[in-house]
Design goal:
Elements lengths: L3 H15 L4 E6 L19 E7 L2 E6 L2 E6 L5 E6 L8 E7 L2 E6 L6 E6 L22 H8 L6 H5 L10 H11 L12 H25 L35 E5 L2 E5 L11
Antiparallel strand pairs: 1-6, 2-3, 3-4, 4-8, 5-7, 6-7, 9-10
Helix pairs in contact: 1-5, 2-5, 4-5
Bound molecules: zinc ion (ZN).
Length: about 270
């Protein structure tokens, strides 16, 4: 599943090809994605002023509004020549002066919306919490938000109204690095633990984005799924294997229906003082 670093890598990868370009046409081959794709003809002839990201949404800002793209579970975007052969699951083309931005999504949990006005007012975006890499996501913020919350710290960190774009992989890794057990109640975290968790979340996401930038596949032309990469992970997917810090066997539990891996020795049960 594309997580925030993959989405950011995708945004940076497609931006040079479509920023400032005029959308000449679009072609919806499969309308039934997570929500029906309904694009107005009035967006034709408009140019893309900027390619931005909010959480896991890619935003194509235009003078008349904004295209909001989500990659869902299995979506990917690439730049193709306008005449490039269409593959299975290529559901949408947005064409700019001979080049097309093409959405492929086998499982069809992705989405594409056009929204008049600023994207922040769209119903998918208006309740989103701060960006994890922004200044607003701080020790003080996480400490304040977590007070009296009985939910586990892992579920709390994955709640997009608390902070956007921290999925299962990066929540698992950030908690491992911050040495906090995923089952600890959010409200029990000390201020210091909140600070550690914030800084580890930022560090891990930044490292993944940097890696995405260096391993970024070719966004132009055919072949392969672009922009996905595997980071060296310390906890996620390593259940039953030795902890890289202490050597104990990593454990796996299900928390809020999500697979969760942690080290019972390194990751403490309490929120520290
Ligand atoms: Zn350990």
């Amino acid at each position: 599943m594309p997580e925030l670093p993959e989405v950011e890598t995708t945004r940076a990868g497609i931006r040079p090809y479509i920023k400032g370009k005029t959308l000449t046409s679009f072609h919806v081959r499969q309308k039934l994605l997570r929500w029906p794709v309904e694009l107005p003809n009035t967006i034709k002839g408009k140019s893309v002023d900027e390619v931005e990201r909010r959480g896991k949404y890619i935003l194509l800002r235009m003078a008349s509004g904004c295209l909001i793209i989500h990659l869902g579970m299995s979506g990917s975007l690439r730049i193709v020549q306008g005449s490039a052969a269409v593959s299975q699951h290529d559901h949408l083309d947005l064409t700019f002066d001979g080049l097309s931005l093409r959405l492929n999504d086998p499982r069809r949990f992705g989405s594409v919306h056009f929204h008049k006005g600023i994207p922040e007012t769209h119903w998918l975006l208006h309740k989103l919490g701060p960006e994890p890499l922004g200044e607003e996501f701080s020790e003080d913020y996480l400490f304040r938000q977590s007070r009296r919350k009985r939910v586990s710290v892992k579920s709390f960190l994955m709640d997009s109204s608390v902070v956007v774009g921290v999925g299962n992989i990066y929540a698992t890794e950030a908690l491992f690095s911050a040495r906090i057990r995923p089952t600890v109640r959010a409200g029990n975290l000390s201020r210091k633990a909140c600070g550690n968790l914030v800084s580890e979340t930022k560090r891990i996401l930044q490292a993944a984005i940097k890696l995405g930038g260096t391993t970024l596949r070719d966004y132009v032309g055919a072949g392969g799924k672009p922009g996905y990469f595997t980071q060296s992970l310390n906890a996620y997917g390593r259940e039953g294997r030795p902890c890289r810090v202490c050597g104990d066997v990593l454990q796996r539990i299900i928390l809020s229906q999500r697979s969760t891996v942690f080290c019972g020795t390194c990751q403490v049960r309490f929120g520290w003082s």
